[in-house]
Structures are given as C-alpha cells and as structure tokens.
Amino acid sequence: MDTRTLARKLLRGFLTVWVVVTFTFVALNLSGDPIEALVGDQASPEVVQQYRQKFGLDRPLWEQYVSYLGNLVQGDFGLSLSDQKPASELIGAALPYTLRLGFTAFGLGLAAGLALGIVAALHRNRPVDRFVMSFAVLGFSLPNFFLGILLILLFALRWRLLPSAGADTPWHLVLPAITLGTHFAGVFARFTRSAMLEVLNRQYMVAARAKGVPAARRTLWHALPNAAIPIITIVGLKLGDLVAGSIIVETVFGWPGVGRLLIGAVTSRDFAVVQAILILTAVTMVLANLAVDFVYTLVDPRMRSARKEE
Prior knowledge:
Blueprint: H1 3-30, H2 34-39, H3 45-54, H4 61-73, H5 87-122, H6 127-141, H7 144-158, H8 174-200, H9 203-210, H10 215-226, H11 228-240, H12 242-245, H13 247-252, H14 258-267, H15 271-299, H16 301-309
C-alpha cells in the first residue's frame, strides 16, 4: 500500500471516528440528565445543580463538546460519574478480559469455520454439505443469549462440568468462548464455502486435477489462496467486531469485560464510559479495515497493480 493510499484511508478512518464521537456525544446529552440517575429522585435541586457544576454539565452543549474534543486529543476520556474514576482506567481494567474472550472465540470460530467451509465445498450438495450449512445458518442466526443460557443449563446446572459465571480460572472461559465462537464459525463456514465453490471448477483447478496433483494440495495450495479475498474481508469485519460482539455474551456469563461494563454504564447513564467504549469500538473497526486492505495487497498481486495505477 503506497503512502498516498494509506493517507487517504487514514483520513477516512479519522472522519469516521469523529462522526461517531460527535453523534454519540449529542445523542447521549439529548437523552436526559445523567445527574438525576446519579443522585436519585429525592435529591434537592441545589444538590443536583452542585453536581452539574462539578462535572461541567451546566455549560451550553457546544462548550461541553469543544471541551470534550480537547480532552480527547490529550487522551482524557472523562470521569466516570458512578465510580469517580477516569473512564480510561475502568476500560483498561476490563479490556484484557474482553480480548481474552474475543481472541479465544475468534480463533476457535476461524479454525472451525474454515475447516467446515472447505469440507462443505468439496462435498457440494451432499449430506455433509447440507449438515455443515445447517450448522452455519444455526450458528450465525441463533441469538447468543439463548445459546449461552442453554449451555449454562446443560454444562453448569445439569451436568455440573463447567462454571456458569466469572473469570477466575481458565475453565470459566470455556462456555462464553464456545457461545461466541459458534457465531464466528457459522459466518466463516458460510463465506468459506461460497468462496471455495467459485474457484474449484476453474480451469487451473481442472488442470491441476488432470496433472494428478493430490486433492489436499489442490485445495490448500491452489483453491484456498485464490478464494482468500472474500474470506479475508469477513474475517476483518468480524475481527473489528470483537468488542461490540461480546456485549451479550459477557452479560450472560458475568464476564468482567468491556461489554458488561458498557451495559452497566448505559443503565447508570455513565456518559463518559459509554462514549469511551463506543470510540474504542469505532477505532477497532477502522483499524481492522486498514489491516484488511493491507493484507489484500499481500495476498492478491492484482491489488498491488491497481494501487500503482491509481
């Protein structure tokens, strides 16, 4: 990727994050007064006004917005109303748990999805293909909260094999990782099958088969690399969705990550924490898209040629 293209994409990413910051700030501030949720309905108007002045919420909205942007530039995401701690500190404590869950589930889903998608493509319209596609549809359409609760009922309450909540031991990771990984596996299996089917019957694959190239080599060294572009696209999108995608799973399993922190912040109207998490999600998506574009140029020589022509 040349410098000009990288600069253009970075500018687009910056504008995307700015739009998210602005929309989130305006929407949250127009949704109601967070001080009322903090002090309760019984607090006197004087106490409410005192807290509003303390957190700068008595100023006009445009002044709050300009001040917020200035603080963001300096790395200050604001102060949590509920915990009286910097929002970045609360997210920093929860983020490692989300990354542990997200990358574990992502790795499981990617490995299973690629394998199942390849097997389904190689056995098109056969029982194996129909079984894999049924699993794929079930995997990405089944709500995470339903699957999570079902796994808790079976493995934690009925069979007592695994813990149902918390993050104290590696065993606590199993059920939430399976729940989130099942979704990833279903999506990856579907896209892998579609991408593989497009290349399996092309002329170079027919020629490789005629030359007696072993099936495993044809699949892994000829078909899969040529089917990589759509697979990389969906992998990049789902990689950028790790933070947002874990919200429901973390809530169901009591996993102390960013998703559970966001639910608590929304409930208590803790604007600083909500804004910081949404910014983190937007930045993650932008970085994931940049990574996908970079991988494109490494995998497909035609992408490099197109960049040079531009």
